[in-house]
UniProtKB/TrEMBL annotation:
EC number per UniProt: 3.2.1.22
Species per Swiss-Prot/TrEMBL record: Bifidobacterium cuniculi
Keyword Hydrolase: yes
Protein name, per record: Alpha-galactosidase
Gene3D superfamilies: Aldolase class I (3.20.20.70)
Enzyme class, UniProt record, top EC level: hydrolase
Lineage: Bacteria, Bacillati, Actinomycetota, Actinomycetes, Bifidobacteriales
Length: 59
């Protein structure tokens, strides 16, 4: 089973929120946790194209 974070957090990637989400997902058998969109470069909203796929550590 896979959990994709997109509709849970959209562009608001907060480590503590993602950690709680991952823990809850694992407790129901999720095996893959996908951190989707918004974690890289200048991608702050859906008016900007996809980034360069380099991790943006400040996020």
């Amino acid at each position: 089973m896979i959990l994709n974070t997109w509709e849970a957090v959209y562009f608001r990637h907060d480590y503590d929120v993602l950690e709680r989400l991952a823990d809850a997902a694992a407790s129901i058998g999720v095996e893959r946790f996908v951190v989707d969109d918004g974690w890289f470069g200048a991608r702050r909203d859906d008016t900007v194209g996809l980034g360069d796929w380099q991790v943006f550590a400040q996020k």
